[in-house]
Here is the input.
Amino acid sequence: MAIETREPSEPEAPRSVLDGNGHVVTAVPDIPAERLTALHRTMVVARRLDDRLALWQRQGAIPFHLSAHGHEAVGAAIAHALDRNDWLFGGFRDLPAVVGRGVPLERIAHQAFGSREAPSKGRVLPVYQIHRDFHIASASAVGAAHLVHATGVAWAARLRSEPTVALASFAGGVVASGEFHAALEFAGRFGVPVIFVCTNLEPEPVAPRADGYGLKGIRVDAVDVLAMVEALEFAVARARGGMGATLIEAVMPRGAESDPVERFERYLRDRGAPTIDLPATDREIEAAIEGASQAPMPDPSTLFSDVWSTAVSPSGEA
Here is the structure.
């Protein structure tokens, strides 16, 4: 019996709206001017805040920080596409999405320093941003656990007939995990209104895997904020319209053309868009960091607060 064999087809190239110089190469999504300004501000504030937090980490004031440098287009587009009632399940490098969701900068800084005023009360890695009132869920140090959590929240919303969408953001290395398979399998099987955004620096494409789970797969240039907005708005509309889950692969290029902030600013300059007041932005960031750096650390006696149903002392005694 002859056995049919097929060579795997090449994945389609990541979609771009802007080239490396910020010039338009295809149709531009319809985004109002004030939204373009908001996207730009989110990217700039996130970049400059991230740089300051990285500096404090090198000085030993912050115990752990993973830079989101270069991820600004992905995060800003996520924040732009989601409504306030939608849920974000972020990863290590989603500071731009947190900024874009409107979380106050000082609260972000408190979380980074692990101060008593931090939403997590200093109990998780500082790089995780947890802000329940902004629908930014707690994260897990297990790299892919939040994909399952996002799928569960989206499934619950569907069971309640709520128009809520959940989005999980993660890195390319996560696709080797069992949680990745479980989340996408369930989402595809039951048409869950969830979006998976993989920022991929690995050579192996991720979006083609979507077919095997019954999801829509899209490859996008991760440095092009307009292409990211277009893909995310499409995925949100699909999810909210009952058409199921989407896997977006944000392909992160390497080299001189890999700065999303510079690329978008070139596009805005060609349009004559107003510039951001950088000195005022820096003062806002410095004030936030100064307030957080001076805040007291959590009281050790609160270590088990909100963990057990009955009060437990740090020594383990009830």
